[in-house]
Amino acid sequence: MSDSPGASPGRRQTQPHAGLPSTPQDRYTDLIATALPELHAWSGRPQPDDLAPLPGCPAVVLFVDGNGRPVQLLSTQQLKRLVISRLCRPVEQRRGRADLAEVVRGVRWRPVHCPFEGRLWYYRLARVLHAGEYRKLVAFKPAWFLHVDWRAAAPEIRVTDSVWCEGGAYLGPWPTRSACQQSLDGLRDLFDLCRYPQQVRKAPRGTRCAYAEMGHCDAPCDGSVELAPYVQRCHAAWRFTTGGADEWVAEARQRMSRAADEQAYELAGQLKQQLRFAESWKARWATNVHPTGQLNYLLALPVTRRRAWKLFLFRLGHLVDGPVVADRRVGPDSVAWLREELARATGTDPAVVRMEQTWLFCHLLFNRESAGVMRVHLPSLEVPVDLEQTVTEAVSSLRS
Q1: Is-contact 194 230, C-beta < 8 A?
Q2: What tens digit of pLDDT does each residue of 172-220 get?
Q3: Cα separation of 310 and 322, whole Å?
Q4: Residues of the chain falling short of pLDDT 70
Q5: In angstroms, rounded to a whole number, what is the distance separating the alpha carbons of residues 111 and 173?
Q6: Which of 61, 64, 111, 332 is most buried, with most CB under 10 Å away?
Q7: Regarding the domain delimited by 27-137, which CATH topology (the fold level of the hierarchy) does it fall under?
């Protein structure tokens, strides 16, 4: 976590009060007080002595004016150093920046125990305080999923980042759009799925493409065949992605062997190429890629400057901020907290918030930070019988 307002250190911030409430007695007050429970205030232009009581901890920070109105939101690894550098900087060092010390009369903050916790709380505050531009300010970007809506007459498997926001089934995540697109292209090759789904949606009045002319597609788009076999292929492709890859590989090897015995070398070569993609799918993506209903994890992240762990639960797009537990207690305390959380009802975050929290979670999965994160997959949202041992051994391995 850097001393920065968002994704890019030094990004120019919204001017003080711009687009923010004109009085603290409004809908932002409760959010700010809950998210940033610590407060230190002063009168007049601050001097270093006024800021001496501030701790030197990592934190999400909000500068406020004399009436408690928000001025600037930041995150930092060292609270006192940040506040002093922003508010007690000599005139010659400000380099054209706004003189925050003229308006800032207090600081609210939330101590955070790891960079991921800082990103989570910065995001939650930024989406309210900077509603029109918060996605530019956060440090994470969209995550990518495959999506299909089985209610459509001609289902289309497609790439999307709008997870949770539309009806249908999702599978993911992929670290980049191009990786997700590569997976879809491979599925199209394996199951003869249409590369021009907009034409299939027009069936039987769609236009044949070059693949149909070359005999690589049976052209349901123009009515050459019924649509039902194409829909069955879409379901077969989705079964492959959701745990059926091993079965498909076994059948494909048998078909390739028969083709070779029958000297159908072109077909055998095609199957060999498809098998190469299927094995690549299993090796590259099967570990992290799941249907969103199974995309549930217990997370334990190392606490900054302490031998302890910060717990989180990612549950169907909801991120639950958990307790800090000591090294020696991480196993049993993780089990107790997870039991308690799973007994609660699922959160009520809107779909767009679940989408963005999923992006944040996926950023953690694919970030360099992931190497130090303990995570336990919870596909059925149940506490595994061996969870205590699994967690204890995992964090011991990460510490060694």
Answers
A1: yes
A2: 999 999 999 999 999 998 998 988 888 888 888 888 888 777 777 788 8
A3: 7
A4: 1-27, 91-96
A5: 30
A6: 61
A7: GIY-YIG endonuclease (3.40.1440)
